[in-house]
Amino acid sequence: MNPPVVLSSTYVGTAPPRPGDLVYTRLGTETWRPLEEALAALEGARLPGVVFASGMGAISATLGLVPPGGVLVVPRHAYHATLAAARSLMARTGGEVREVDIADTAAVTRALGGALGRADDGARDRAPRPAAMLWVESPTNPMLEVADLPALAQAAHAVGALVVVDNTFATPLGAQPLASGADVVVHSVTKYLAGHSDVVLGAAVTNEARIRDHLLEARTLGGAIAGPWETWLALRGLRTLALRVERSQANALDLARRLEGHPDVVEVRHPGLPSHPQHARATAQMRGFGSVLTLRPRGGRAGADALVDAVRLWVPATSLGGVESSLERRRRFPSEAPSVPEDLLRLSVGIEDVEDLWADLDQAVRRAARQTGA
Predict the structure, then answer these.
(1) Any catalytic annotation for residue 79?
(2) Distance CA 228, CA 177 (A)
(3) Is 192 noted as a catalytic residue in this protein?
(4) Confidence check: pLDDT of 123 > 60
(5) CATH superfamily membership of 241-372
(6) Is 26 in the active site?
(7) Segments making up each domain of the chain, as ranges
(8) Are strands 315-316 and 133-137 parallel, antiparallel or unpaired?
(9) Can you tell me the distance from the alpha carbon of 182 to that of 43, in angstroms, rounded to the nearest whole number?
């Protein structure tokens, strides 16, 4: 019923190794295979996934597909470490990063360049050079913008760009980007896939053999290999993914609806709310609306910090996707995008009883409002 955990760092052998032979664990181990096959099945991929030591390991390896001097189009709101890695890579290789509002399909299309990015008069000298890669988060972290992925994939491919989708927030149960035109899907397995806040892992999945070969080479030579225990724990967590996501998504939508009418709340954003700017798009593209919501309480930054201090059941912590509910003010990180409001709280909703979650959140919101005089 359970695949074994193989802890060996090397394998016995004397003959020249053949393809598929196990030689040394940095090159490959049987412990990775069940998780890589399961991730491929979830994403509808023809090839096994590639598991990495962290989500950033998978992200960095995938960003390496941009050729030196190439153009990378990324969301202006995305995981801040992804943006930092993208800027660092492009600075080293002479490339260009173009940051866009990923929910604005026309703006993304212009940023992709080539004939698609020409000015209205068609002047060739005004056309930005075509992008080599389009990076998509949908919903974005932390602003929860939803991209029109089929349209963006078509536009990117029209200029010869690869399409990469970070599917961490949606999970494969909420969206399968490969079916919508993505070339690569990346995950922070740490989050929903493993689901228990006890491992750090990443993965990338593709249908293209040449891309998978690049990812394997990046893992092997870069050394971002997953540990056997972490891989086994992630596979165990994966078995309850459907149950956990079903419960946490239901909790998140319930809480978002209640918070939207709260007198001490300025703004709530969740793709499942009709007030969300891309609610119709999310309804058409996603199966479920995810388990993350954002909240802006009265009292500005001080009110947000007071709310975080006032919760008892919710856990003030970074990361997301665990069975426990957590929250944090995202701009506490200096590297977060300056367009993210100072008072924005990102809430990762877990699988606890929704009434318990609501009772704690409600008292914290009210206490924060009193403390700040909002």
Answers:
(1) yes
(2) 28
(3) no
(4) no
(5) Aspartate Aminotransferase, domain 1 (3.90.1150.10)
(6) yes
(7) 33-238, 241-372
(8) unpaired
(9) 11
The alpha carbons of the chain give a radius of gyration, in whole angstroms, of 21
Within the chain, strands assigned E span: 50-52, 71-75, 96-100, 133-137, 162-166, 184-188, 202-206, 265-269, 292-297, 315-316, 326-329, 345-348
pLDDT tens column, 194-211: 999 999 999 999 999 999
pLDDT of residue 126: 67
Whether the per-residue pLDDT at 241 is higher than 80: the answer is yes
Pairing of strands 265-269, 292-297: antiparallel
219 as an active site residue: the answer is no
What local confidence, expressed as pLDDT, does residue 122 receive?
53
Active-site residue, from 101, 166, 183, 343: 166
Which one is catalytic: 11, 24, 26, 236? 26
Cα–Cα dist 199/227, whole Å: 10
Residue 119 has pLDDT above 90, yes or no: no
Catalytic residue among 110, 191, 269, 346: 191
What does pTM read for this prediction? Answer: 0.95
pLDDT of residue 93: 97
**CATH class of the 33-238 domain in this structure:** alpha beta
Q: What is the pLDDT of residue 374?
A: 74
